[in-house]
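Work Package 3 (structural annotation) set out to generate three-dimensional models for the target panel prioritized at the project kickoff. During this period the team completed the workflow that converts sequence records into C-alpha cells, so that structures can be stored uniformly alongside our sequence database. As a representative example, we reproduce one entry of 913 residues exactly as it appears in the project archive.
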Amino acid sequence: MIRKAFKPPTFVRPDAKSDEPPQKKRRVSSSVNERLPLVPLPNAAIPTSTPNAPPENPNERYYSVLWRKYTTKKNKTWDGDGVLAVVNGYATLTNSDDGKELGKSVCNRPLLPGSALSMGGKEVEIEDFITKENFMAGRHFLGKAASRPVANPNPAPMKFKPLPPAAPGKSKSGAGEGQDNKAPVKTLEERAKAADNEDDIIVLSSKPVAAIKEFKTPLLPSTVVPKTKSSKPQPRHDPAAPNALVMKRPSSCPKGKQIVDVVVDPILTKHLREHQRDGVQFLYECIMGMRCEGEGAIMADEMGLGKTLQTITLLWTLMKQNPIDGNSPVVTKALIVCPAGLIGNWQREIRKWLGNERIGVFVVDSKDRKNKKITNFTMGKAYNVMIVGYEMLRVVQDELKKGSGVDIVIADEGHRLKTANNKAMLAIQSLNTERRIILSGTPLQNDLGEFYTAIDFVNPGLLGKRAAFKREFENPIVRSRQPNASESEIEKGEARWKELVSLTGQFMIRRTAEVLAKYLPPKTEHIVFCKPTVAQATAYRNVLASPIFAVALGNTDMALPLINVLKKLCNSPSLLRSTKDGDNTPSEMLQSLLPLVPQNILASHAASAKLRVLDSLIHKIRTTTKEKIVIVSNYTTTLDMIQQLLVSLSYKYLRLDGSTPAAKRQSLVEKFNRTDQKEAFAFLLSAKSGGVGLNLIGASRIVLFDIDWNPATDLQAMARIHRDGQKLPCKIYRLLVQGALDEKIYQRQVMKMGLANAVVDNKASASTFSREELKDLFRLNEQEQPQTHDLLNCTCEGHGIPHVDDIPDVLDEAEDDEGNAYPSLKKASEVDVDEQETKLKRHRDKLRDGEQPKLRMLMEYAHIDVNFLREVTEHGDESEELEMAMKVDDDVLLDVVKEKDCRVSFLLTKRSS
C-alpha cells in the first residue's frame, strides 16, 4: 500500500514571512472608553440582628444544625435539620421537622459554623447562628413560607391612569346602557373628533347614522366600560368613577402581557360599607397570593358584619376579571360548602345582590339530589356557583372531580372543620383546589389544635407539621398562661404567641361588632343571676349527695351524663322525667336519681327559678311595651316547658327547632318579622338548629334560658336580633342559677373568650376537667353573692363599677420598694389593723392564684346587687335610685327585680353604644 508522506500543518498565512513575528491586533478603544480603575469598597459590618451574627449573651446561644445517626457508611448523608439551644452550659438538640427533642448534653466550648459535636447518639454539625428573637418566635419550626417577612398590611395606594372624562351629559358607565340620559346621542363622526388621542379614534362606517345607533340592553343597566381600539389595557369598570373599589395590582406580569386594573362592579360597590370594602380587598389579595405563599384566607368577622356579601362580591369580581389583560377570569367554577340549614340563605343572598340573570347557581340538597346531575355544573356553562351542605359533599365529591374542576372553595361556618380527619375536610382536600376561604365568626372555639387545622386547611404547610406546632407553639403558649408559670416560660410563650399572631395576620381578618356601632341601635347585655327556689335547691343537694357523684370524680366518662343531669336541674327539676333531648344519660342512672327528688317537685315546673323570672319578664314586656321577644334554649324539652307557659298566658308564639322542616324555616322568620306583637309575641328558637343564619330583627329582646359550654353558640344566638335592619335598642338576658352548674359554665365561657382573644384556650370540653375541677362543678354554692363576683376581687359591693377615689378602706395602688402593695396612709386612730391585714392577704392570694386575670372581661360590666337596689328604692333616695336605674338601663328589668318575690339576686350589665 502506497502512503503519502506526512506533511506538518502550518498556521502561518501564505503571505506571512517566516522570519517576522505576527503583528499584534490593534486596539480600537478610544481614550474616552478606557476602563476606569476599580473602586475599593470596605465590607459592611454584620448587623447583630441577622441570622449570621454571633450571640450577644454567651450563656444563651442558638444554632441551626444538621444531624444524623451514627453510621459506618463511607458516603454519609444528613438525616435532617435541627435547632441547637445552648443555655447555661447545657445543649438541647431539637428536630425542626416535628419539634421532638433528640438529645441533651453538657456543652461549655464555643461553637462556630462548621463545628461538629455528638450528643444523644447523633452527629451534629453547626450551620449558622440563630438570634434569640428568632428562636423564641419559633420560626425555624414553621413551614418555609412562614419564615419569610410579613407582607406589608398597608400597601401603597395603587396608581393608574384615569380614563378620559365622559362627554357632558353622558354617564360614565357608557352611552345609553340603561341610563336615564336625556342628552342626544352623538354620531360616530362627532365622537371621533372629540377623541383625546389617535388610539381612541373609531373607524367610521359607511352606514347611515340611523342604522348605527348604539345597542341598548333590554335587561339591566350595565357599568361595563365600552371597548375602544386603544392598545392600552382597558378595565371592565371605570377605576376613576366616584366610590370605585380598585384591587391591588400584581407585582409581576408574564412576558408579552400587560396588567389591567381589577375594579369591583359598581352594582355591588354601592352597597358595601367601609369595613366590607376593606374585607373584599383583603380576600382578593390573599386569593391572588399577594400576602403570603398560600392562596387561602380566613374571614373571622363577628356575626352581622356581612361576610356573605363580601364573599359574593369577591366571587363576582374573580369570575369576570383578571389582572393580566387578555387572560380568562381567575375563577370559573366556585363551590360554597355550608351547613344544610344555610343553603337557602346563600341562594337568596346571591339572588338578592346579583339577580337571576347574571350568575347561575346550582343547589344540591338531599331532597332533589336524585333529580339533579352534578355534570350540569362541572361540564356545563350555565352554572358558575354550586352550593352544597357538608354532609352531602361527601356523597358528590367524586363527581365534582370531573370536568375542569373547582377553582375556589368557600367553607361557611368553617369552624366545623375541627380535625384533620374530618370527612368534609378530606372531601374538600380531594378536589385539589388551592384557593380556599373559611368564613367563621369563631375560628378558635376550643384549642389551638383546631386553630392549626383551620390554618393548615387554607394554607397547607404554612405552620409546619402538627407535631412540631404542638410542641413548639401550642404547649409553650398554654404553659405560659398558667398561674404558676416561670419567667422563662412566660417569655417563651409570649414570643411564640406574638409570632403566631403576626403570621396568621397575613391571611386572617377579624373585625368585631364595634364597627357597626354607627349603623345599629345600642344594645344592653344583662347577666341575670337567679337564686334557686327552696325546692330546687333541695333537689340539687339531694342529687349531689348521691354516691354516683362520688364515683364520677374518678371517671370522666361517667361525669359527662351527670353534668347533663345538673343542667336539667338548673332549668327545672321536672325535666328529669324526660329523655327526649337525646342525651347519653343511662336509664339506670336516672332510676337511681329520681327517688332522691320529691314527687311534687318533679310534677310541676313551679320549682324553676329561671322560669319564674322569665314569667315576670315576658309579662312586663307584653303589658308595658309593643316589643317582641326571642327565647333560646339548647333543649327541646325546655322549649316545651316555655311553650306551656306562653299558652297559659294566652301569648301567641312561633317555634323553630330541629323538627321544623328546612323549607318552612325562612317563612316562619319572615312571618315573625313582619307581624306585630298581637300576632306573634314570642319566637321559640333552638340554639342548635337556628343559632346561625337567621335574622330575627322583628324582636328587640332575647332571652338565653340556658347556657352552653361553647361561648360561640351563645354569641351566635345573641346576634340574631342585633343585625342590619334593627330599629329598636336591643336587650339581651342570660339567665343563670346562682351557685349551681350554670354559674360554673359561665365562668369557663368568660375564660375561653378571654383566652381566645389572645389566640389561646386550654379548656376544650368537660373531658379535660381535672378531679379538683369536677369537685368544683359538683357543688352548690349558697352564699349571698355570686362566686363570679368574688373571683373578680372587686370592691364595688354590688353598687356598680368602682372608681379608685370612691373606694373606702381599700388597699391603695402604691407599692413599697419590693413591689408589694401596702395599705393607704391614714391616722393611726382610723386604721383597723386586723381588717387591713385580712384584705391584704385576700388580695395577694387572689393575685397568686390567678383568679382575677381569668375573669378580667367582667370588669367591663356594672355589678349590681339587687338587694342594694331594693334598699335604695325603699329609702326613696331619688338621686341614688336614678343612678342605679341608669346603670341597669332597662325599665322592664328594673320593674321585675323590684318585685317582692323576684328570684333575681345579682346583675352584671353592659351597654354597647
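The chain has a mean pLDDT of 75.
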